[in-house]
Amino acid sequence: MLPAHAALPNAWNNTVNYFKQIFAVAEADVRKLRHDPWELFTRMVQPMLWLLIFGEVFTRAHTIPTGSMSYLDFITPGILAQSVLFVAIFYGISVIWERDLGILHKMLVSPTPRSALVLGRALSSGVRGLSQGIVVYVIAAALGVDLRVGFGSVLGVIVAVMVGAATFSTFSLIAACIVKTRERFMGIGQVLTMPLFFASNAIYPIDMMPQWLRHVAAVNPLSYEVDALRTLMINGGISSFGLGADFVVQGLALTLLVAIATRLYPTLVN
Amino acid sequence: MDRQTQLGDRKSGDETSPIAAYAVSTDLLTKRFGTLTAVDRVSLLVPQRAIFGLLGTNGAGKTTVIKMLTTLLAPTEGNAEVVGLDVVKEPEAVRRRIGYVSQMLSADGELTGYENLLISAKLYGISRADRAQRIAQALKFMELSDVADKLVSHYSGGMIRRLEIAQSMLHRPQVLFLDEPTVGLDPVARRAVWQRIRDLRNEFGTTIVLTTHDMSEADELCDIVGFMHVGRLEALGPPAQLKAELGAEATLDDVFIRYTGTSIAERGGYQDVARTRRTAERLE
Q: Nearest-CA residue of chain A relative to B95?
C-alpha cells in the first residue's frame, strides 16, 4: 500500500506519463516526415490550385455574395480548412497499413492507454495540418489577401487548424476500424470528403444554400472550423456562430470521436 | 558472467511483480469466431524461465492463443493468466510485464533502428535516465550498433528480427511472446535469432513463448512443446519425452504427424498464407 501523501504525486506522474506517450506516438510520425518530407510538398499543390485558379476566377465573377469581403479573402480560410480536411481524412489508410505490417499490434501490446494512441495520431495529423497552414498563408499573402497577423490571431489559427485536423483524422481512424481494408477505405475517403466540403461554408456562405443543406451545414464540424478561421485569419472577418461556439462545437466533436475511436482501435487487429 | 554485469541486473517491467509459479497458465481457454472454434479448451502451464514452443499447421490456433495471452483478443470462454495476472481482468498489468514480436515484421521501416527503440522506450514509459543506456545495450546485445542510424527499410530480414526482439526487451519483460520468429529467414540468420533467444532466457531469466511450424526449430530451442491441431492442444511435454513415447528412433516430425494427422488439414486459408508470404517477401 502506498502512503496517502504519495497519491497526489502519483496521479501527477501518471498524467505526465500519459502526455509523454501521446507525444511519443506523434514523434514517430514527425520523424518519418523528417526522413521523407516529399509528402508535405505534394500536399501543397492542392491549396495552391484552389487559391490561384478557383479563387482568382471567382473573385472576378462576383457571383457569390460575401458582403464587404472580397471573394478571395472569403475562401482563403475555407481553402485552409479544406486542405487540412483532405490530408486528415486519408489518415486511416496509414493506420490500416500499420495494421498490415504488424506495427499496430506492437503498439497495442504496450501498456500505452488506447486513448493516448488515438490522441497521438490526432496530434501528428495536427502537425501535418500546420504545414498546410504555412502554405496557405504564403500564397494568400502573395495574392494580397487581407490577412491578420497579430500574435493572438495566429495562435488562434494554429489551435483551430490542429483541432480540425485532429477531429477529421480521428473520424478517418474510426472509418478505418470499420472497413478494415485499404481498398474499401480508398472509396470511403472519397465519399466522406466531398459532402463534408460542399455542405460547409468553405467556398460559399451558408445563406446561399437551400434550406435542407443549411441543416446539414449546421451540424458539419467543418463549418465551425471555417468560421473560426475566417474570424481569426482575415481582417474584417465576422463570425456567424461566434468564436466561442466554434471552439466548443469542435471540442465536443473531437471528444466524442476520440471516445469512439478508443473503443474501436483495438478491434483492428482482431 | 561478463555479459551479466554488462547488461545490469534483471529488473522486470514493474517493481511489484507478483510471485507466480507459472509464467503462463490457461484453463479451458476457448475462442470462437462465429461458428468457427479457433481455440478449443486449451489448458496449459508454462514454468518460469522455460522456452515453450507452440506447434501446429497454419490455422491450428497458435496465433489466436498468443493474441489472447498478449491481451489483443478477449477469450470467449476459459481463463488465462500471465505471471499470475488475469489477461481479461488486468490487461494493463499484463502488458507491462510482457514483450511481443508479431508474426509480421513490425519494426517501422521508415524510421532508423535507433528511432524504433526510442519510440518503444517512450511508449513503455522508460525514464530518460535509463533510456539511453538501455537502447545502447540493446543495440550492442543484438549486434546492431553499427547500423543504428540507418533506416530499417535497408536492414536484412535477420537484422529486422533482432531489432524487434531488442525492442520487445527494452522494458525487461518477464515473458516474451514470439509469433513465428524465424519464418522466412535463411539458416544463418535463423541460428543467430535462436542464440539471441537463448541468451535472453539465460541472462534475464525471461520466459519465452514462441510459435513455429518448424520442427527442427522446436527440437533445438524448446524445453517444452505443445502440439495444436484444429484448435485443440493434442500433446504437451519436453521434445525428448514426446519422441520417446513414439519409439527410440522417432523424430519430432513423427510426433507432429502423430498428433496433427498425416493429411495436412490447412485451416489457415487465404489470410494466413498471404500474411506469411508477405512477411517472407519483405525478408528477401
A: A111
At B275, which CATH number? 3.40.50.300
Residues of A in contact with B73 (CB under 8 A): 269-270
B49 — phi, psi (to 5°)?
70, 10
Look up the domain containing B243 and give its range: 2-107+174-283
Our count of domains for chain B comes to 1
ipTM, 2 dp:
0.89
Let me know if residue B142 belongs to a domain.
no
Task: Find the closest chain A residue to B274 by CA distance.
Answer: A100
Query: Is B14 inside any structural domain?
Result: yes
Nearest to A101 among B95, B100, B106 (CB): B106
Question: What pLDDT, on a 0 to 100 scale, did the predictor assign at position B104?
Answer: 86
Considering the domain boundaries, does residue B140 fall inside one? Answer: no
Residue B189: CB atoms within 10 Å: 19
Q: Do B167 and A111 touch (CB under 8 A)?
A: no
Residue spans per domain, chain A: 40-267
What pLDDT sits at residue B267?
52
> Given the C-alpha cell 522456452, which residue does it identify?
B51
CA distances to A5, A108, B16, B105 from A2, rounded to whole Å, are 8, 29, 12, 41
pTM over 0.90: no
CB pairs < 8 Å spanning A and B: 82
Nearest to B105 among A101, A107, A112 (CB): A101
Using a 10 angstrom Cβ sphere, with 0-12 exposed, 13-18 middle and 19 or more buried, the burial of residue B282 is middle
- A186-206, pLDDT tens digit by residue? 888 888 899 999 999 999 999
Helix (H, G, I), strand (E, B) or coil at A4: helix
Rg, C-alpha atoms of chain B: 18
Please tell me the distance in Å from B215's CA to the nearest CA on chain A.
25
In a domain, B207, yes or no: yes
